[in-house]
Amino acid sequence: MGCNPRIEEGKYLLQAIEKKTGFAVAILSKQDIWQWTRGRFKVASELDRALAILIERNYLREHTLDKGTVGRKLVEYELNPAIGTESISKIVATV
Fold it and tell me: What are the C-alpha distances in Å from 94 to residues 34, 37, 38?
């Protein structure tokens, strides 16, 4: 029996963030995250589901910034600082 597909997406996303940043970057843009994972998440709604898993489990915190201009708002994610102190295998086991 496989795990919940949403959980698997969250694990994949967390591993991609770790691979690209080493958890050394505190703030990530949604655009950067999508660029790193666009082979797996073809549309934004798929990425949003994976991000929601990590937000629910307090791995990420969402910030929406108003750029002061007309258009889309900038969405950034803040990594939980405690992540950097744990091994990725331990974190992924708990997602």
Answer: 23, 21, 24
**Domain enclosing residue 72, as ranges:** 5-85
Q: Are 27 and 76 in contact (CB under 8 A)?
A: yes
Other Cβ atoms within 10 Å of 38 Cβ, number: 12
Task: Output the pTM of the full model.
Answer: 0.78
What is the CATH number for 39?
1.10.10.10
**Rounded CA separation 75/88 (Å):** 25
pLDDT tens for 45-65 read 999 999 999 999 999 999 887
Using CA atoms of 35, 37, 43, 49 in order, give the dihedral in degrees to the nearest 10: -120
